[in-house]
Structure formats: C-alpha cells, structure tokens
Amino acid sequence: MVDKLPASFERGTDGPKVIVSGLDGSDSSWRAVAYAAGLARRQNALLAVVYVQPLLTTGAALGAAPAVEATEEVARALEAELRQAVERMHGLHVPRWQFHTFRGDPYNGLVSAADELTADAVVVGASERAGHRLVGSVAVRLVKAGRWPVTVVP
C-alpha cells in the first residue's frame, strides 16, 4: 500500500528556487554554468552566475586603479560572453538568469553570493590547478562548509 503524501505537499513547488554557479572563465566553470542552466531550466529556478573579482595583493596596491579596472573588464567580458551564449540558444527555453560580481577570494565571494542571493544550491567547476589537491579547492571548501548542496562539475 502506498502512503499518501502529507497535506502540505504541493506538486511542482519542491526543488531549488535559486541556483548559484561560479564563473571564472575556465573551461570547467563554463561547463558548471551549462550544467546549472539545465538544472535551473528543469526546476524553473533562477540561475545566478557569479564572477568573483580577486582582491588586490599589497604588491599591486601601488597600481590599484589599473588592477581594479582589469578585473572589472574581465567581469564585463564574461557577462558579454554569457549573454551571447544565451542568445545562441534562441528558441530553447532559457532559464531566468542574472550575472553578479563580488569581490574577494573565490571561496568567500561565492559564500557571500550564495548567502546574499539565498541560494538553494551551488554549482562550481572542478579546479584545474594541481596545487589545490594539497591546499583544497574552492569546491572542496564549499562542500565542507555544508551550507548548501554543492555540485562539482569536471
């Protein structure tokens, strides 16, 4: 015999409402955004694509204005590339999406984004840097934080 669903259950209202995906321009981050877009489409969720502008190191502080402008230019280029990708999918159901930039290191920037945007899930690309196996990648740190379901896309 099949148990009845609780009275508070409503078909079609479960699942994430906001999915945050990190984008830094790497191949794995683009795959993560594509995967997150598919999730958002199937769940009718908002896709929030986040680029975290790196903080300046003390050595770069002497030329701070040009360095800040460079990271803002990267953000503009990524947003333009994302818009072109969405336009190429014309005719397909494209999820609602937004592009956000945050400043900081990638981990803290994504945590801030997920908190501010009240994310239900986070999707990131696997690190392509060899040193992250020793220190820990952003993806591993997000999983260990245990605050959201995290999907790591290779």
TrEMBL record:
Domain UspA as annotated: residue spans: 17-154
Top-level taxon in the UniProt lineage: Bacteria
InterPro entries per the UniProt record, alphabetical: Rossmann-like_a/b/a_fold (IPR014729), UspA (IPR006016)
Family label: Belongs to the universal stress protein A family.
UniProt protein name: Universal stress protein
Natural source organism: Streptomyces pactum
